[in-house]
Amino acid sequence: MDGAEFALAGHRLEIPHSPGYPLFMMILRVGSMVLGPLYGHLRLITCLLAGACFPAAFLALSSLGVSRPGAFAGAAALLLLPPVISHLNVLEVHG
After folding, report:
1. What letter does residue 16 receive in the DSSP assignment?
2. What 8-state DSSP symbol labels residue 18?
């Protein structure tokens, strides 16, 4: 499916993947050398990366002046939304 995406993006002069795609591929490559190239192992890496989203969301809300309990609740509410959580545990790049 990426071939068609790259062809269409080249025709329209668009970016075919999110800017984090090369970094994501490098993390998966290093992870596959350490854990093995099994799909489940690579999904474990994406789940760990998704876990890093909570502190980032917490710090982002805290920097906006939200109280600590409010920032904690806001970060949890954001990451537990069904569309967000469904995209955090798949082996795909989502900007």
Report:
1. S
2. -
Alpha-carbon gap, residue 73 to 67, rounded angstroms: 10
- For 20-56, the DSSP string reads THHHHHHHHHHHHHHH-S-HHHHHHHHHHHHHTHHHH
pTM of the full structure: 0.63
Question: How many angstroms separate the CA atoms of 53 and 15, rounded?
Answer: 24
- d(CA 92, CA 95) in angstroms, rounded, equals 10
3-state secondary structure of 33: helix
Determine the length of the chain.
95
Q: How far apart are CA 62 and CA 70, in angstroms?
A: 9
Block mean pLDDT (10 aa), the chain, length 95? 66 72 80 82 82 92 95 94 80 62
**Residue where the block lists tokens 């990451």:** 79
What is the C-alpha to C-alpha distance for residues 56 and 50, in angstroms, rounded to an integer?
Answer: 10
CB atoms within 10 A of CB 46: 21
